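Per your request, structure below.
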């Protein structure tokens, strides 16, 4: 029987992690889990509940009673599909603060391990290779310059005919980088045994091909 494989992909917002993670999972037949989407879903619930970010006791109590799951790459919060809602500006603006709450992170890490327990997975996020799965079979750290990340996000939003502004996008990326990198609880950092991939001047196909070579090498071990 084939061994259960865990591929951990970490890196800052907009570096191409989720595109690579999704494609890898599809090609390999693994389950894709977007750990950032789980923080987004809980942020949505906090906003809808009207809790302040400082209301830690209520936030923790609510999170413990929350069900988050994925079905066909769509995310469900207490059985309601929220795939699009969690990508809104208000969630973008609040999710880094929510995900910096240490007590909330430990509940989320348990949920993230539980959700992946029976299958081979590709999970992307900020602490997958350092905290959620320190023994992952493969760890990739995918990054790109702030300008390249802002430019990609700009093109993505503009392609949906939505009004957008490059400066706002860049500021929002830098704001989130700053919180993700400097928070006390499991800040974004590359695991010692992760492979660094800088996608600034690389196409998705190039990165995917490289990542697949790494997986094939690992499978041969
Ligand atoms: O990957 P994303 O932009 O959807 O992540 C949303 C937020 O969640 C981001 O501020 C970082 C945080 N996050 C985290 O702290 N740990 C993870 N494993 C995944 C995301």
């Amino acid at each position: 029987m084939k061994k259960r494989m865990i591929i951990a992909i970490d890196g800052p917002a907009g570096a191409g992690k989720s595109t690579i993670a999704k494609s890898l999972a599809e090609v390999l037949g693994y389950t894709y889990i977007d750990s950032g989407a789980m923080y987004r879903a809980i942020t949505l619930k906090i906003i809808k509940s009207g809790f302040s970010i400082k209301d830690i006791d209520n936030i923790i109590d609510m999170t413990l009673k929350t069900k988050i799951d994925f079905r066909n790459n769509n995310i469900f919060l207490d059985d309601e599909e929220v795939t699009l809602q969690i990508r809104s500006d208000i969630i973008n603006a609040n999710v880094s603060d929510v995900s910096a709450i240490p007590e909330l992170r430990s509940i989320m890490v348990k949920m993230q391990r539980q959700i992946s327990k029976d299958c081979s997975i590709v999970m992307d996020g900020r602490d997958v290779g350092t905290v959620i799965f320190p023994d992952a079979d493969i760890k990739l750290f995918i990054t790109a310059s702030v300008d390249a990340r802002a430019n990609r996000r700009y093109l993505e939003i503009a392609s949906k005919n939505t009004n957008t502004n490059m400066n706002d996008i860049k500021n929002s990326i830098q704001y989130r980088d700053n919180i993700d990198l400097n928070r006390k609880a499991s800040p974004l950092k590359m695991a010692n045994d992760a492979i660094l991939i800088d996608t600034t001047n690389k196409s998705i196909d190039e990165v995917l091909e490289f990542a697949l070579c790494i997986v094939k090498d690992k499978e041969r071990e």
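The mean pLDDT is 93.

Regards,
D.
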